[in-house]
## 1
Amino acid sequence: MPSILESLYHGSLFPNEDIISKDPNYRPINRQITESLEVWKQKLTAGEFEELESLLELYSQAQGMEMTAAFVCGFKAGSAMMIEILVDG
């Protein structure tokens, strides 16, 4: 098994793909979203539903940017803590 640093170097480390919420409300909420989209698909014309999907894609992109920023912030904070621990020993 390659080390974390080797995986990072080779571009095979994707922590965002391993994140699945353990919150018990996560799956029911996702199910509600799927069901709601199916209802909207029936209510809207094909063109209107495509517009809705485009909007949701933009939202998803913004959410991904927020998740990236949160990951970077958390990683930096964790790294700073480790430096502090090692320096103050």
Note: Helices lie at 4-9, 26-43, 46-88.
## 2
Amino acid sequence: MAKKAKNFKKSKTGVYVSLASTAFGAVSVAKQAKMARKDNDLLRLADAAVSAAAIVTGLAILYRELKRLGDDDVLLG
């Protein structure tokens, strides 16, 4: 069982779960940015921008990993 859990991150299912959780984090960042604009808080807005950049980078890395695994999904090309 431990070996299955260890290799889960490198499986297609693991990558899909990681993609979903990273995308879910984008909702939190969007809320943070909205509140920062409403309160006119530049420091929180900068934090939201950096977090958004990290999410975009994370999604790109996960997408690359998914392509490397040789997914035959029509949407990925």
Note: Residues 12-39 form the longest helix (28 residues).
